[in-house]
């Protein structure tokens, strides 16, 4: 389980996160939407312990990531651009990543993880420099499968993916959540947020303005709420 507890963060006197609190339970997918500069990536960086909060806690399974690094073994981070070794193929990359994490994996386990992501068998022996963004992402997700990640942090995972690759990505992430991972995703993609998330937080200027439960929420309501909150204007009024 992942929990932001009253997180505050400033850079050079500028408050970029203010009293940010939310939880993502095991098996749940939460998405953060917000304008550029709202503080979404800063939030991920606090969970990754790349940054220290001024106050508050970023907790993974009840452990403050800034006080104990035991939580880092439970976590996999997928940045917008998955930067793996371009000169290695998928199998070699995953073997190497597993080795760096102190995990022993067989080639059969690596193939099984890649099977879950749907990466074509024929591509697995090719160097990553020939991969598309979606294929690279599948290798990153396969690492989460190998690591049996309890927490997955995703930063704008669908930007630049074509509609089919986006759908495939959604299917893979749903499967990881069904297996019990807590997933926090930052995105500007309404469709992905709407299709995938159990709850959607809308952020602006470091604050969580609202937290929408996504049970049968129409995508038009999500978009309307976003625009009203962020720009103070109704989408419907704008177009009429
Ligand atoms: N290392 C840093 N040093 C100084 N300011 C920073 C740093 N990282 C982020 N900021 C500032 O903090 C604010 C929040 O940035 P953040 O990257 O978290 O926003 P975001 O919601 O992820 O935006 P985007 O959608 O553009 O990725 C911005 O004003 C940004 O300029």
Could you describe the 3D structure shown?
The chain has 240 residues and is of the alpha/beta class. It has one domain (2-81, 149-239): Rossmann fold, CATH 3.40.50.300. The protein has eight helices and ten strands. The chain has helices spanning 40-47, 90-100, 107-117, 133-147, 163-178, 190-196, 219-231, 235-239; strands spanning 2-11, 14-24, 29-34, 55-60, 63-64, 75-78, 151-155, 182-186, 199-204, 207-213. The strands form two sheets. A six-stranded mixed beta sheet has the order 6-7-8-3-9-10, with helices on both faces. Strands 2-1-4-5 form a four-stranded antiparallel beta sheet, covered by helices on one side. α5 links the parallel β7 (151-155) and β8 (182-186). α3 (107-117) crosses α4. The longest helix has 16 residues, at 163-178. The protein is globular, with a radius of gyration of 18 Å. The chain starts with a strand and ends with a helix. The relative contact order is 0.17. It binds adenosine-5'-triphosphate. Residues 11, 16, 34, 36-42 line the site of adenosine-5'-triphosphate.
Brief rundown of the structure:
The chain has about 240 residues and is an alpha/beta fold.
CATH topology: Rossmann fold
What is the ordering of alpha helices and beta strands?
A: EEEHEEEHHHEHEHEEHH
Identify every distinct bound molecule in the structure, by name, code or SMILES.
adenosine-5'-triphosphate
- Round the Cα radius of gyration to an integer and report it: 18 Å
Q: Give average pLDDT, whole number.
A: 91
Strand content: 25-35%
Low-confidence stretches: none
Whole-Å distance between the termini?
Answer: 43 Å
Task: Name the strands of the widest sheet in spatial order.
Answer: 6-7-8-3-9-10
Cα shape: globular
- As a percent range, the share of helical residues equals 25-40%
Determine the CATH superfamily. P-loop containing nucleotide triphosphate hydrolases
Structural class by secondary-structure content: alpha/beta
How many domains, in number, for the residues?
1
The top-level CATH class is Alpha Beta
Give the tally of β-strands: 10
Main beta-sheet annotation: 6 strands, mixed
Overall CATH architecture: 3-Layer(aba) Sandwich
- Tally of alpha and pi helices: 8
């Amino acid at each position: 389980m992942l929990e932001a507890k009253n997180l505050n963060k400033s850079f050079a006197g500028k408050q970029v996160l203010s009293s940010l609190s939310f939880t993502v339970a095991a098996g749940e997918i939460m998405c953060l939407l917000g304008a550029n500069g709202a503080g979404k990536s800063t939030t991920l960086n606090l969970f990754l312990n790349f940054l220290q909060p001024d106050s508050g806690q970023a907790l993974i399974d009840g452990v403050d990531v800034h006080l104990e690094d035991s939580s880092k073994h439970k976590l996999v981070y997928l940045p917008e651009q998955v930067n793996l070794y371009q000169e290695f193929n998928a199998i070699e990359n995953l073997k190497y990543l597993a080795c760096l994490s102190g995990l022993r994996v067989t080639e059969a386990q690596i193939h099984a993880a890649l099977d879950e992501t749907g990466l074509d068998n024929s591509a697995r022996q090719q160097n990553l420099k020939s991969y598309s963004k979606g294929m690279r992402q599948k290798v990153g997700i396969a690492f989460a499968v190998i690591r049996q990640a309890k927490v997955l942090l995703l930063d704008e995972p669908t930007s630049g993916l074509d509609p089919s690759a986006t759908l495939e990505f959604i299917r893979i992430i749903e499967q990881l959540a069904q297996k019990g991972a807590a997933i926090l995703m930052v995105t500007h993609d309404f469709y992905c947020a709407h299709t995938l998330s159990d709850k959607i937080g809308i952020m602006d200027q470091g604050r969580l303005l609202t937290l929408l439960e996504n049970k049968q929420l129409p995508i038009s309501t999500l978009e309307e709420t976003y625009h009203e909150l962020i720009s103070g204007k109704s989408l419907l009024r704008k177009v009429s």
